[in-house]
Amino acid sequence: MALSLEEFIHSLDLRTLPRVLEIQSGIYFEGSIYEMFGNECCLSTGEVIKITGLKIKKIIAEICEHIEGCESPQPFELPMNFPVRKDIVRILPSLDVEVKDITDNYDASWFLQLLSTQELFEMTSKDFPIVAEIIEAPQGNQLPGSILQPGKSIVIHKKCQASRILASEIRSNFPKRHFLIPTSYKGKFKRRPREFPTAYDLEIAKSEKEPLHVVATKAFHPPHDELTSVSVGDQFLVHHSQRTEVLCEGIKKVVNVLACERILKKSYEAALLPLYMEGDFVEVIHDKKQYQISELCAQFRLPFNVKVSVRDLSIEDDILAATPGLQLEEAITDSYLLISDFANPKECWEIPVGRLNMTVQLVSNLSGDPGSFLVRTLVEEITEEQYYMMRRYESSFLHPPPRPPKRPSVEETKLTLLGLAEETAVSLPKSPKSLHVDISKKLHSNQAGLDSNVPVGCQNDLAFLEKERRKTGASAVAGTSATTEIFKK
Questions:
Q1: DSSP notation for 275-325
Q2: C-alpha distances out from residue 363 to 113, 150, 240, 371, 485, Å
Q3: What is the rounded average pLDDT for all residues in the chain?
Q4: How far is residue 374 CA from its own chain's centroid?
């Protein structure tokens, strides 16, 4: 049964792709030619095409501003580029033609066998090595020369998992650059000072290899006489955590502390810092040694701060050498394809499956034993989005110990009240008037059970928070339209 192309696309189950269609009729009659994305394309009646997938053409977003007298959202279009290569044609589903599904009666092997990077990785290991021709080259290609260019023949040797060190620039202003550094990187690093916001971070960072030497950049006055006061500029050697008794309003209680030594001019004195202490410490570096990245990962605990002291001479443009400093954050494992130029199969490169989009046409299997080959890697600069996707993925497998609770304070009481207001706001109607009334009732009913020493200023802060919440907000609504990727026979 003949359907319009748009009707067919709307009824299409993506799990049944690819599908083979025959052009039946429409305004694009036999021999008609039309222009699309700056390229001429011909769809003739009776022509057979193969639908391999759907691609997003554009995203329609709306900013919804809750302002009196302005109810209608403001739509705008976010365009996306769709390059056309070889026999790949991308057309809008609204094209006024009729098509007929002839998949069951047609040998789809007559079409080109085109695969994406992800589809290549999903092949079994015994399918490799293979020879492929590049149809669509990746954007932002970092490989040297012209290995990944349209029309180029490459050898895909195998798929593999490889280790990388996730690193970010050390800089106060944004945006920061992010990198994936292979453990085979041949440059050398010198250590850079780390910053620690609390005494608990000192406990995490301390090492048995050497004492952690820090200087305080923020004063601290302890609530108990048994603990040590800190002035700006005080220097400490960090040793270990322990528990100690303190006297609190005539009652003894046990607190977790960090045992340190304060460095004086000619001697040392014992110091006990509570783990909840917010002190802002900066590391003092005495180590002048130059390390390779594999040595840093083996000897020190990440995250770790470094600066490139000797660039990797095997790389033509070492992008790490120009950075003011790097924080080596964590080791990750990612998926790669090992490829080489068909003309030089002995020199191989690892290309990332998830961040390098490439379409190839399979040409043949590579017969014979390829023998040994040299595997080369590159430092990869990644986007902000890719960086946070990797951090989110890795953190789902890591469970760091929770920070210890801070000492009770008036500030914590204020935060408790603010949290109560947020929790109440989630389950209440959106009307600003009802929100005001219900939150006020909730807060007044709960304030009776709070410490009578809580200052009245907390209530003023809550009133200010409520006014802020009643201001206008914005949200984005995404809409999509699709194009159809079609292979012409």
A1: TT-EEEEEE-------B-HHHHHHHSPSSEEEEEEE--TTSSS-TTTTSS-
A2: 9, 14, 62, 21, 21
A3: 75
A4: 30
